[in-house]
Write a structure and sequence with these properties.
This protein has 117 residues and is an alpha+beta fold. The protein is 56% helix and 15% strand. Strands 1-3-2 form a three-stranded antiparallel sheet. The longest helix is centred in the last third of the chain and has 19 residues. The termini are far apart.
Amino acid sequence: MTRAVHDYLPLKPVDVEILLALAAEDRHGYALVQAISEHTGGLVELDPGNLYRVIKRLLADGLVAEAGQRPSDESGGERRRYYRITPIGGRVLAAELERLRRLVDAPETRRLARRLS
């Protein structure tokens, strides 16, 4: 049974970060950790165990796929497993970003933010 895009929403913040990183390019695990840390200004630091648990879930959901193994530039012939965002993963990410945009742009949200600052 195929799930509709809205069935995946809302995404967890870490899912959004991984999908954003993979939307830019295929990446291996360590490159994902680096990209997410850079994108979040160091606010999100993923440990390998948590990263691969999330990737396993995203693979099972069909949002991410393996993009093969490639040799690492810095290691002596060691191969790294790369991941890519799938077409449904891209649609889910786009829907989640739109959902978040509407939330942030909502007049009630802006009023609350002004009141709290």
